[in-house]
Each structure stands twice: as C-alpha cells, then as structure tokens.
Design brief:
Blueprint lengths: L3 H24 L24 E2 H17 L3 H18 L10 E2 L5 E3 L2 E2 H18 L2 H17 L11 E2 L20 E2 H17 L3 H18 L10 E2 L10 E2 H18 L2 H21 L10 E2 L10 E2 H18 L2 H18 L10 E2 L19 H17 L2
Antiparallel strand pairs: 1-2, 2-3, 4-5, 6-7, 8-9, 10-11
Helix pairs in contact: 1-12, 2-3, 2-4, 2-12, 4-5, 4-6, 6-7, 6-8, 7-8, 8-9, 8-10, 9-10, 10-11, 10-12
C-alpha cells in the first residue's frame, strides 16, 4: 500500500474543504428566515416552505465546530455560530427545556416532541463547539441536556433510553424516529447516538456521573445491541430488550464499530477498551465479508439471511465505511481493512461526490447511476457523515505519521 499521507490525505482534505464545507457555506443559508434552508433539491432548487429539522441544524453546528477546531478559518466559525444561534432562538424549548424535533420554514415550533436522538445530537454539537472555542455557556447547556435525558429518558429498570417523549417530557406513544422506523420503545440508532454525544461530552466534562453513565451505555450496547452470533447490530427492541427486528444495517454496523472504540478510549477504561476492540473487529469483519460489493461500495440493508433489501448504495454508509475500516486496520494492522478503507474512498470519489452541483448525491443505483430524486439538503441529508469521515481520516492519517 502506498503512503496514504501522500495519496489519500490531500484528496480527503480537498473534498472536505472545497466540496462539502464550501457547498454548505454557499447554498444552505436561509437569508430570508434565518438559519439554514430546510430542503434543497439535487438540482439546487430550494423548497421554500420546507420544515427545518433539529438533526440538520445540530449536525451543521457539529460539522463546522469540528472544522473550525481542525482548521481555524473564521468562515467555519461563522457558520457554527449561525447554527448555534438558531438552535437557541428557534429550537430550544423555553418552558420545559430541551429542543424541539422540528420548526417550520419561518422558525416556529412545528414538532415539539423530545426525540432523544435529536437531543443527543445537540449534546454532540455543543460539546464540539466547546472543544473548538471554550464557550462555557455551550458546555453548561450540554450538561443541562445530559441531566434532562438522565432524568426523563433513562430506563432505571432495564437500562438504556426510551426513543421519545412529549414536549413536557411525559411518555408518548409516538416513538419512531422517521417513517422508516418501527414504533418501538428502544432502538440501536438512538443508543448509538446517545453514546456518541456522551462520549464527546466526556472529553470536555469528565464528571463521575457521566463516567458511570458512559460505561454502562457501552456495556448495554455490547450486551443487548450487538448480536453475539453475527456481530451485526440488532435494530429495534421493546422496553426489556426483546428483539423486534432482524434486519441488518451495514452502515450502522461499520459506524458503530468505530464509535464504540472511540467511546471506550475516551472513557479510559483499559479492560473495557479491550473488550470493545474485540467486538468492533468482529463487526468490521462481518461488514467486510457480507456488506461490501465488488466495486468497493457498501450496501444499505439486508434481511437476517443476508438478502439485500435495497440495491442502492446511499452516501452515508460509504463515509462510515472509510473510517470504520481504517479504524479496524489501526487496531489489527490487517491490510485487508486498510485496502477496504481506500476502496471506500475510491467509490465515494467516483460515484458519490457530485462534481457538478457540489456535495454528495444521496446515493447511486445498482448500476452506478446517481440517485437524483432525493434532496441534497434535507432533515437527514446533512454535512455530518461525509464531513466527519473526512476529518476523522485527516486526524488519523496525520497522527500516524506525526
């Protein structure tokens, strides 16, 4: 394998700065209503009345905070400040605390429920903003949000976290994250992103309470969410962790493999880190064996027996595969994983990155054609998976050769 610092590093840095971040700075600002556009189609036409999602705004804050931390460009800070201001002005609930799931195009509350997944992304983003700027008010807000989740969303009987609550934090029947998700009390996806948010908070606020909580969450993930037989994530559960779905999500598997290791390493528990690394290597191996096509791209989802549920390859699993496989290589020095990471980048570069309108396509079809009927900016199409993948690779490659 050639020196990736000479080949991959400059390509990934160029992709991050010139294609991903530049797109969001040039196209996403809503100059009329404040904040950012809720939806922009693939041809760059704006959906003027689109609602604005908490996930999109929190992920913009995280991405540009992280970019500013790595590359102190005032333009990145300005984008992050815009996202932070809009979150506080429009999404924050002044009565009950926490953040609304969605606002309308003008910034009025539209979906006021407290989706735990969304709160977790705010914690993730505020922590990253604090890492970049040392803004104490943002850290205080992140801590307050952590305490709200522990008070209302945590299950003290069975452990883990409920999916959603009403605006006033009372129980709700409306649990599911999106139209694609089951309406079950617990999910892999929410737990993975609570883990991610709490890990980033622990970097900057290593309290005894969070230490205990983060350790338990890592253990819960290994015990209930990773299938010990297959090393795939299980996706949905009832309150007592009875399994409600046997579908496989390759993108979440490879993403989870590196986020689990990151969590354990940030926590600093050597014994737990070793356990987590064993699990993560098995997860990466399962994805490599079952989820990667001959062109280097990874598929979205499969049924329990491995039958593909969707022949397309979406953008975000490709981003996570590049990081997840490289993380597995760093742990094992097995060059199959390094090769898989490089092939992920090649697939992104060839098929996923939009060299006409900028940013990344939603995905490609089985025969490699761009999916153009899905929006370039939307509630779920944010600069986070691809921006983070580039920044992770930059940090990992630079560290390797420093």
């Amino acid at each position: 394998m050639t020196n990736l610092n000479e080949t991959l590093l400059p390509q990934v840095e160029k992709e991050l700065k010139d294609n991903i971040l530049a797109f969001w700075m040039n196209h996403a600002l809503d100059e009329e209503n404040g904040g950012f556009r809720g939806e922009i189609r693939n041809d760059l036409s704006v959906v003027a009345d689109a609602h604005k999602s908490l996930v999109l705004n929190a992920r913009i804050l995280w991405t540009f905070s992280s970019a500013y931390r790595l590359f102190p460009d005032p333009a990145y800070r300005q984008m992050a400040e815009r996202a932070l201001g809009y979150l506080k002005e429009r999404f924050q609930d002044p009565v009950h605390g926490g953040f609304y799931w969605g606002v309308d195009a003008k910034g009025n509350p539209a979906e006021t429920k407290k989706q735990v997944y969304g709160q977790s992304f705010v914690i993730y983003a505020l922590s990253e903003w604090y890492r970049a700027t040392k803004d104490q008010a943002a850290l205080d807000e992140a801590v307050k949000l952590f305490e709200l989740l522990e008070k209302y969303a945590y299950d003290p009987v069975n452990k883990g976290y409920v999916e959603a609550l009403n605006r006033d934090w009372s129980p709700t029947e409306e649990l599911s994250l999106s139209g694609k998700d089951l309406n079950e009390p617990k999910s892999m996806n929410t737990h993975l992103h609570v883990l991610e948010g709490y890990t980033n908070l622990y970097r900057v606020w290593p309290s005894a309470a969070l230490q205990k909580t983060l350790k338990e969450l890592i253990e819960v993930t290994i015990q209930y969410i990773v299938d010990p037989k297959t090393a795939h994530f299980l996706l949905f559960f009832d309150e007592e962790w009875a399994i409600k779905s046997h579908h496989i999500s390759y993108g979440h598997d490879i993403e989870g493999s590196w986020l689990l290791v990151e969590a354990a390493e940030v926590l600093g528990n050597d014994e737990l880190t070793e356990r987590v690394k064993e699990v993560a290597i098995r997860m990466a191996e399962a994805t490599l064996q079952e989820g990667v096509d001959k062109d280097g791209g990874i598929w979205n989802e499969a049924s329990a027996d491995g039958t593909l549920l969707d022949p397309n390859k979406d953008w975000w699993p490709q981003a996570e595969a590049m990081v997840g496989f490289y993380n597995a290589y760093q742990m094992t020095e097995d060059t199959r994983f390094e090769d898989a990471a490089v092939r992920s980048w090649s697939f992104i570069d060839q098929y996923i990155a939009d060299r006409t309108n900028g940013e990344w396509y939603w995905g490609v079809t089985a025969d490699g054609k761009p999916v153009i009927d899905q929006s370039k900016v939307s509630a779920w199409k944010c600069p986070y998976h691809n921006g983070r993948a580039c920044m992770e690779m930059i940090e990992r490659l630079e560290k390797k050769h420093s």
